[in-house]
C-alpha cells in the first residue's frame, strides 16, 4: 500500500511511499502479479483525522488546525478493499492503482460535522503544519494524470516501460478528437 503523500512528496514518509511504488513498477518479478495501491485517507483508520478529532471532541479539547481551508481525499475501508480486489483481477502487472474518491473534503467542514454529531461546540486552535503536511493533497501529479488510464473506479499508472505506449495512444486519441471537434464545428458553421 502506498499513500497520497507519494504525490510530490515533501517529507520522508511520502518519499519512501513513492520509492516503494517505483520499486514495484521496476523490479517486481514477472512470475506473479504485483501492484501498488496509492490510497487516500481511509476513514476511521489508525492515525486518520476522524478518530483523532472524535477523541479530542469527546475530551472537549480544542482541535489543532493549521489551515481551515486544508482538504483531504477520503475513502472507506470497504471502498479501498473493493478497489484492491478489482485491481488485482484487472490491472496490469507492476502498475500503481489509484482509487477515485468522490471529491476532496475541507477539514474544517469535516470537523464541523463531527462536532455536530457529538453535540459539542467546535473549538479550534491554530497550529503549525506537521512535517510533510500539505494544505491540499493530490492523488496524481500532472504528468501522472496525462499518463494514467481510467478504469472506472480507479486510475492505473502503467510501469515506466509501458508508459510510452500509453502516451502514444493518448496522443493519437487527442489528435483525432481534435479533428472530430473541428469537423463538427465546421459542420455547425455551415448550417
Radius of gyration: 21 Å
Report strand order across the widest sheet: 1-2-6-10-9
**Low-confidence runs:** 176-191
Share of helical residues: 40-55%
Note the overall shape.
Answer: elongated
Average pLDDT rating: 81
Structure description:
With 191 residues, the chain is α/β, with parallel strands linked by helices. The protein has helices at residues 12-27, 49-58, 77-90, 107-118, 142-147, 160-189, and strands spanning 2-3, 36-39, 41-42, 63-65, 71-75, 96-99, 104-106, 124-126, 149-150, 154-157. A 5-stranded mixed β-sheet has the order 1-2-6-10-9, sandwiched between helices. The model is unreliable at 176-191 (pLDDT under 50).
Descriptive terms for the model:
17% strand; 191 residues; alpha/beta; five-stranded mixed β-sheet; disordered C terminus
Concise account of the structure shown:
This protein has 191 residues and is of the alpha/beta class. It has helices at residues 12-27, 49-58, 77-90, 107-118, 142-147, 160-189; strands spanning 2-3, 36-39, 41-42, 63-65, 71-75, 96-99, 104-106, 124-126, 149-150, 154-157.
Task: Note the topology.
Elements: E1 2-3, H1 12-27, E2 36-39, E3 41-42, H2 49-58, E4 63-65, E5 71-75, H3 77-90, E6 96-99, E7 104-106, H4 107-118, E8 124-126, H5 142-147, E9 149-150, E10 154-157, H6 160-189
Parallel strand pairs: 1-2, 2-6, 3-5, 4-8
Antiparallel strand pairs: 5-7, 6-10, 9-10
Amino acid at each position: 500500500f502506498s499513500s497520497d503523500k507519494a504525490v510530490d512528496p515533501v517529507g520522508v514518509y511520502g518519499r519512501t511511499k513513492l520509492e516503494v511504488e517505483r520499486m514495484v513498477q521496476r523490479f517486481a518479478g514477472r512470475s506473479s502479479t504485483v501492484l501498488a495501491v496509492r490510497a487516500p485517507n481511509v476513514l476511521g483508520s489508525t492515525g486518520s483525522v476522524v478518530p483523532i478529532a472524535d477523541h479530542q471532541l469527546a475530551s472537549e479539547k480544542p482541535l489543532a488546525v493549521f489551515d481551515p481551508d486544508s482538504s483531504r481525499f477520503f475513502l472507506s475501508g470497504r471502498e479501498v478493499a473493493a478497489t484492491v480486489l478489482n485491481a488485482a483481477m484487472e490491472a496490469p502487472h507492476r502498475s500503481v492503482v489509484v482509487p477515485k474518491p468522490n471529491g476532496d473534503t475541507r477539514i474544517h467542514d469535516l470537523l464541523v460535522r463531527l462536532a455536530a454529531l457529538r453535540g459539542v461546540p467546535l473549538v479550534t486552535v491554530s497550529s503549525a503544519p506537521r512535517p510533510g503536511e500539505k494544505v491540499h493533497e493530490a492523488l496524481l501529479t500532472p504528468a501522472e494524470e496525462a499518463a494514467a488510464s481510467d478504469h472506472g473506479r480507479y486510475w492505473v499508472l502503467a510501469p515506466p516501460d509501458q508508459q510510452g505506449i500509453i502516451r502514444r495512444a493518448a496522443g493519437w486519441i487527442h489528435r483525432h478528437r481534435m479533428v472530430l471537434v473541428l469537423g463538427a464545428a465546421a459542420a455547425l458553421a455551415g448550417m
